[in-house]
Amino acid sequence: LKQAVVDKSPVVAASVLVSALHLIKHNGEIIKRWVNEVQEAAQSRHAMVQFHAVALLHALRATDRLAVSKLVTQLTRAQVKSPLAQCLLVRYVSQVIVDSQPGANGESRPFYEYLESCLRHKGEMVIFEAARAICNLRDVTARELTPAITVLQLFLSSSKPVLRFAAVRTLNKVAMTHPMAVTNCNIDMESLITDQNRSIATLAITTLLKTGSEGSVDKLLKQIGGFMSDIADDFKVVVVEAIRALALKFPAKHRALMNFLSSVLREEGGFDYKKSIVGAILALIQEIPDAREAGLAHLCEFIEDCEFTFLSVQVLHLLGREGPTTKEPAR
User: Fold this and answer.
1) Counting Cβ atoms within 10 Å, is residue 193 exposed (0-12), middle (13-18) or buried (19+)?
2) How does pLDDT run across 302-312, given as a tens digit for each residue?
3) How far is Cα 42 from Cα 118, in angstroms, rounded to an integer?
């Protein structure tokens, strides 16, 4: 087996490396004697052989952080041509820098230059892996995010659904912590609202709701209106949660957002979906004083024909507590 690691046949070499990855869990000492052969395989011109060799080299050092750091340094300087092996290397680089802090005086953190260089790779898989790694860096700065956001923006207009989904999903996550960094992608994401893939459309809408300005709220609500009836309840819950956050972010727009929530509350839907809408209206009532009267009125209308006892009891309890203090309790 040891000699087969450097076999001329890539099928044989890859098979032995995969076997070694399984064997290392039970008897790592045997595999450690193969290091020279595995390092030679890591320079193979065959993509799958190089991929499995890099994975095995990392597995042999996985418990030693210093050894992993040295391996990553060695591999980033070597010519790793296999796209799969480069994706692995990007992940290993992320592991090494996960505990590091940004450099002093604005200097880049260790290995950041390597991640940035991968954004210019020929393979889409490597480009995305590098962009995702940069976006997931701890305490990432706006300057570090910029090249990754630029690449992901290009993927938004790709003809491949998997690339569009990957890009919008990553940008959706970035928008939670750095909404301003994603605003440049809003025009591209607006075109994804009508995407045939409902997962992509939902992520695009929720990202726009997180990054949109106060002036864009009305336009977004119009676009969402015709979209809600075409998606499953699970996606609807995600949209409602995003609308809730938007209403708390822009209290001046509470009227339009409250009207939207009340309109979708009257439509057909399951318990979790209706519960999320009621929860959003309750949050607006509690956090925005001007929304109190309208919110209570919408909830009163809802319980007249509510099929969920739990929600009816929740709303009745609120009405009993808040109703007597309103301007017109008799309503």
Assistant:
1) middle
2) 777 777 788 78
3) 19
Q: What is the b/e burial string over 275-296, where b = at least 16 CB atoms within 10 angstroms of the residue's CB?
A: bbbbbbbbbbbeebeebbebbb
The owner of tokens 């595995």 is 38
φ/ψ of residue 201, rounded to 5: -60, -40
pLDDT (average), residues 113-128: 90
Assess contact for 96 and 69: CB atoms under 8 A.
yes
Q: Which of 38, 99, 90 is nearest to 65 (CA)?
A: 99
Q: State how far the Cα of 200 lies from the Cα of 169, in Å rounded to an integer.
A: 8
Residue type, 14: A
The more confidently predicted of residues 252 and 227 is 252
The answer to whether 251 and 288 have CB atoms below 8 angstroms apart is yes
If you write DSSP's letter for every residue of 185-204 in order, what string do you get? GHHHHHGGGG-SSHHHHHHH
For 145-164, what is the mean pLDDT?
92
